[in-house]
User: What shape does this take?
Amino acid sequence: MPKVLMKGNEAIAEAAIRAGCLNYFAYPITPQSEVAEYLCWRMPEVNGVFLQGESEVAVAYMIFGAAGAGVRVFTTSSSPGISLMSEGISYLCGAELPAVFVNIMRGGPGLGGILPSQADYLQATKGIGHGDCRLLVMAPASVQEAAEMVMQAFPLAEKYRNPVMILGDGLIGQMMEPVEFPDHLRSEPSNKDSWASNGMDHRKSKTRNLVRSLYLNATLLNDHNMDLRAKYERMKAEEVRYEDYNTDGDYQALIVSYGTMSRVCKTAVNTLKEQGIEVGLIRPQTLFPFPEAAIRQAARKESCRAVLSVEMSMGQMVEDVERSVRGARPVQWYGKCGGEVPTPEEIIEVVTATLASDDSRR
Amino acid sequence: MAKTFQRPQALFDQPTHYCPGCTHGVIHRLVAETIDELGIRGRTVGIAPVGCAVLAYNYIDCDFQEAAHGRAPAMATGIKRVRPDLMVFTYQGDGDLASIGMGEIIHAANRGEKFTTIFVNNAIYGMTGGQMAPTTMPNQRSSTSPFGRKTEEVGMPIRVAELLSALVTPAYITRQTVIRPKYIQKAKKAILKAFTYQMEKRCFSLVEVVSTCPTNWGMTPPEAIQWTEDVMLPYYPLGDVKTPDAEPKEMPCKAK
Assistant: This one.
């Protein structure tokens, strides 16, 4: 298929269909409403299901019901809406159901604003709902990558029987870029006979399936949580993804940044290179699992004097960066969160100032 | 001599965890009989609520999903939309449906979702220990209204069947009870009718069942039955509140 120019939100919508997901439930919220506006006519074209729910709370359970019935299903929302869905996401984790949630982040807290942000990092990566639940979180940095990640998210959700979140900032949803879609996947969860409640006539065993998260017995609940933990550990071992940029040679500083913010950082890295200052960049593509080992190794490079976490939040990912670096180098944060995206000039200034400071000279 | 009365195939043979005098057991049986009579056990998905009846799947033998408090109608919507061939019912109490889940039930009913809701109204929260519900009767004592429900503070009990019947979308909405044998046969017919409307893809259907909770009411089972008859039934009158046939064919207004 040739490249087409598409808005991020529309590319996400089309990518889901190409991934064989023909079921979509959602509630309108800026800056992601284009997904619903696209799918409300596109889903009927492919005999799919489109339904606008009465609230994000209800939508999360429409997703639960559909996922529990063994079909590919997804929704999209933005920060305040994701807060409302977080209850349902915990139930999905508890019942081990696969589904895809897209969060096109806007600034908060509260109503905040409608401009781009990365302020839901901790919410997305540290459990999101109540109980010991985790999401596999993927962070695209372009419209093309957003489309590809949506297509990868469904098989991953089914592999782990766990919700997967695509965490994009408002710019990913709103900007237009050329995008090329991979081939259709067109499939349903292949393992669903063992867990989906879709009528026992439909499976060979003719025995019933219960989709549940209630374990009143303490030992059984602990066993269940140990099983979930093992699954999250397996994600850490098998699903870490990141991109490194300008890390081959010697660099004086290392930037960790994701999503739209990482593109601005790349520009800063290029400009600094022209000025004779080498800076490496690691861009996590999965935020959970986090590329801890890669960041630790990159930070420990002899020439590297400081690590900088650049994010459109008030210092969230920096906690994971510090955890990864484990004190081997000083870690700093730089960011803004109100809708303004930090410019390359600002980042250059911060890098220069960091390298000049006593702390990083040591 | 032929057997004329036996356990439905859709009902497990196992001891009950419900309290003496509780009506859940009778209602479970009526649902199981209905599933048997329609021959739909292999394509039925039940939604168990939060509350005493979360363990409904320990009694009724079909696929089940377990809901968060109040969210069963949203889950049933999700299942029915992606698999319209399945038969789906939610089984919900009054705290679940009339309090925390009021938004979900109203919108599901208004969209005309083709599933069936069994709404068990015993005027109190059961599993959490007898707290006041939106359906608790005026002056009725509960663990969070120890001096009786004060209507000037929390309003009158909500009549769910009448409230949902105010929606213009066609639906089958009825109120029944199972506290005496004479009511049980009518309740059974209503549940069968509700499932049949679903099977025919006609409309949303809801059967409210006025029920007892002797444990949390602080009564013996016979006292609870008498109290239901004397106090609840005058306020929650029995019978069909809305049928799909009664709806006007012409829409009152349409955008151009």
Notes: DSSP finds nine helices and seven strands in chain B. Chain B touches chain A through 33 residues (CB under 8 Å).
